[in-house]
Design goal:
The structure is a single chain. The chain is of the alpha+beta class. It has a domain at 3-245: ATPase, nucleotide binding domain (Nucleotidyltransferase, domain 5, 2-Layer Sandwich), CATH 3.30.420.40. Helix content is 38%, strand content 20%. It has helices at residues 49-63, 105-114, 118-126, 134-144, 146-151, 158-167, 174-177, 192-197, 237-244, 298-309, 311-320, 324-332, 374-400, 418-427, 439-452, 458-465, 476-501, and strands at residues 3-9, 13-20, 25-32, 72-79, 84-87, 93-97, 154-157, 183-184, 189-190, 214-217, 230-236, 253-257, 261-268, 279-282, 288-295, 343-345, 361-363, 406-410, 430-434, 468-472. A 7-stranded mixed sheet has the order 14-15-13-12-18-19-20, sandwiched between helices. It has a 6-stranded mixed sheet with strand order 3-2-1-4-11-10, with helices on both faces. β1 (3-9) and β2 form a beta hairpin. α2 packs across α4 (134-144), α11 (311-320) packs across α12 and α14 crosses α17. It starts with a strand and ends in a 13-residue tail after the last helix.
């Protein structure tokens, strides 16, 4: 039997997932990781290349221990988007940050002061704002780490870094590089003139190649892979996740419920909207883009809730040999719609041009322990992720002018019983759940298979390999209740943002420059 290996560097974990050539998941190994703030650098989120490579290698070794690694035809990688890695002339990593690193607050302000229309200008070309873009971060490095800046010869995204570790070749693909904001939606290539215009080196951008392209073979013996294994260009987690869901044609819709929740709709490359509230990214399908909304930190909020408040449930889950979230869903199963009025305040609706969030909190908690407890708080968080996602989808519908009737739902959040039904009820849409819940890894494996020559294309293979677990229809009675809850949540969130504006509370996350 022959295999394909997908490496997934997510916000919350690194993982290795092994598939056979029919798209069946054979094994997987993952380890949670954290991205540590640099000392005396507010809002920073560094990415430790050495430590995290060791973690990835452990995952590879675990995922492949039952097979002959010589039978792995190809390896590819996907990752959280927006994270960047800087290299020297020899290809050694100099500096790296994870996706929501927001250290470049001063640099964003300076860019807007010096070039008043520049963010809007670059947004029309790239579909990205400065919120998570690479240019302000590069300016921060130039100003605060000049010794690193002077040595910088190349830049890449984190999935590209994984492939560079394997092969020694630094290259990028449109789907991930596009989120750096120095990239043309129309031409699917870097735009060095953007960097040149703001005083950044313009010769540091690597070749841009499409997902599924072979860039080399494995050179790194630490990875335990055969040196004959092909290294194939991967891409951004959301876009490859879309491929792993079969969401490859115009008008198709998905929500990927991971550390962040992404709501995406496939479109032919459109002109970005003037209000800059949504983002537009290159898809892994050539000629296709995706309109995207983001629900911030949904999965990470659940992880915080689990780790901070649910120690006894974690112990009980270990005894039953199930995931802690299974226990929490059982506790939430009989909680009524609306969770007794609890209103979680975490992620706001996506406002890409002015993106910040209120202080994390739960509103409307009462003192009756039979109603206000871990079960009802957990369900309120599930409902809240769906409410924010529904608001984002409404904004996407208004922009595209296309009505959504079916949502493909995947990622860790889709594994439960409650969450998919809540999503259907909140949105009023049909929800489809794929057999393979790790859609991002499957999409990555499809890219590897295209490079290995066993699949014709990502688009055709995605439609062939994706199979469905179940479809869920909404309860329209619950949908009407959620409409009223959405109205209350929007009023409450506006009030909580006002407290941040007044300096009374601290934002959960704020884009640099605000």
């Amino acid at each position: 039997m022959k295999y394909l290996l997908a490496i997934d560097a997510g916000t919350g974990s690194g993982r290795a997932v092994l598939f056979d050539t029919n798209g069946k998941q054979i094994s997987a190994s993952s380890e949670e990781w954290t991205h540590i703030s640099e000392e005396d650098v507010p809002n920073s989120m560094g990415f430790d290349c050495e430590k995290n490579w060791e973690l990835i290698c452990r995952c590879i070794e675990e995922a492949t221990k039952e097979i002959d690694v010589n039978d792995i035809l190809a390896v590819s990688a996907t990752s959280m988007r927006e994270g960047i890695v800087l290299y020297d002339e020899e290809g050694n990593e100099l500096w790296a940050v994870a996706n929501v690193d927001a250290r470049a607050d001063v640099e964003v302000r300076e860019l807007k002061e010096k070039f008043p229309e520049i963010e809007e200008e670059f947004y029309t070309l790239s579909g990205q704002t400065f919120a998570l873009g690479a240019l302000p971060r590069l300016l921060w490095v130039k100003k605060n780490r000049p010794e690193i800046y002077e040595k910088t010869a190349k830049i890449s995204m984190i999935s590209d870094w994984i492939l560079a570790r394997f092969s020694g070749v630094i290259a990028s693909d449109p789907s991930n590089a596009g989120t750096a904001g120095i990239y043309s939606l129309e031409n699917r290539d870097w735009m060095p003139k953007m960097a040149e215009k703001v005083g950044i080196k313009s010769d540091i951008f690597p070749p841009s190649v499409e997902s599924g392209t072979v860039i080399g073979t494995v050179k790194d013996k630490e990875s335990v892979l055969s040196l004959e294994t092909k290294v194939v260009m991967g891409g951004g987690d959301v876009q490859l996740g879309s491929a792993g869901l079969g969401v490859v044609k115009e008008g198709e819709v998905a929500i990927i419920g991971g550390s962040f929740w992404q709501q995406i709709v496939n479109v032919k490359a459109p002109q970005p909207p003037k209000d800059m509230n949504i983002r537009i990214n290159p898809h892994v399908i050539k000629g296709m883009s995706q309109v995207e909304g983001i629900t911030f930190f949904s999965g990470l909020v659940m992880r915080w809730f689990r780790d901070a408040l649910c120690e006894s449930e974690k112990v009980f889950a270990q005894k039953r040999e199930v995931d802690t979230y299974v226990i929490l869903e059982e506790m939430a199963r009989d909680i009524p719609v609306g969770s007794y009025g609890i209103l979680p305040i975490f992620s706001d609706v996506m406002k890409y041009g002015k993106w910040y969030h209120a202080s994390p909190s739960f509103l409307n908690l009462g003192l009756d322990p039979k109603r206000y407890n871990k079960g009802s708080m957990f369900k309120s968080l599930q409902e809240n992720a769906c409410i924010v996602s529904a608001e984002n989808l409404d904004n996407i519908e208004k922009f595209t002018g296309k009505e959504i009737d079916t949502i493909v739902f995947a990622g860790g959040a889709s594994k439960g019983i409650l969450w998919p039904q809540i999503l259907a009820d909140v949105t009023g849409k049909k929800v489809k759940i794929p057999e393979v819940k790790e859609a991002t890894a499957l999409g990555c494996a499809i890219a590897a298979g295209v490079g290995a020559g066993i699949y014709e294309s990502i688009e055709s293979t995605a439609k062939e390999l994706v199979t469905w677990d179940r479809s869920i229809l909404p309860s329209m009675e619950n949908h009407e209740i959620y409409k009223e809850i959405r109205k209350k949540w929007k009023i409450a969130y506006t009030a909580q943002l006002a407290l941040v504006d007044q300096g009374v509370t601290e934002s959960m996350w704020k884009a640099p420059g605000l």
